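Ticket reopened. Same input as before:
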Amino acid sequence: EVQLLQSGAEVKKPGATVKISCKVSGYNFTDYYMHWVQQAPATGLEWMGLVDPQDDETIYAEKFQGRVTITADTSTHTAYMELSSLKSEDTAVYYCAPGLATKSWFDPWGQGTLVTVSS
Amino acid sequence: EIVMTQSPATLSVSPGERATLSCRASQSVSSQLAWYQQKPGQAPRLLIYGASFRATGIPARFSGSGSRTDFTLTISSLQSEDFAVYYCQQYSNGLTFGGGTKLEIK
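Engineering reply: fixed in the latest deploy. New output:
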């Protein structure tokens, strides 16, 4: 059974950085791209970017370019998403999800990590 | 960026009846469209990919149709567990989601 286990909820101050992990089991970690999706109250579901665990290639959405860093650790089958210069608008649930390609549907999704940005 | 528009925003249907949800793309996405179901406090769950292919384990009452810019998700006979929010997503040019349709009990 494929499982994606994300790290727990975070509370951050504006301007801070958050790093979320996503540990994978049940499939070969390097066979799929790992995507990250933000679900915020005002903007809904937005794709943030991806990493190819095979070669660490990344692609980022224009909206998050410069603030997001997505990495993968093949030794621990874990992907990470780091978002910097946090703003109140970044208060959201963040999901990891594997995809067969750089442009793909997502199945399954991690359980989500709530990040709250508040002073 | 391809904009995905879902309608209606809220759909009220009685259990046992058919529900029809729509998704429109601002430009052609061919058949590169997926549908997801999301319940409160849960992650989205893949229902349909390639516009009409059911994901593993998805009941036959869920069906997808359409191509290019107009797509439909049909739930043939609503069960209690089907009341949720549904999202479409295109993966033809970039990756964008619709705003969702909330399916509620009438």
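The two ends of chain B are 35 Å apart (CA to CA). Residues 32 and 91 of chain B are 5 Å apart (CA to CA). Please confirm and we'll close it.
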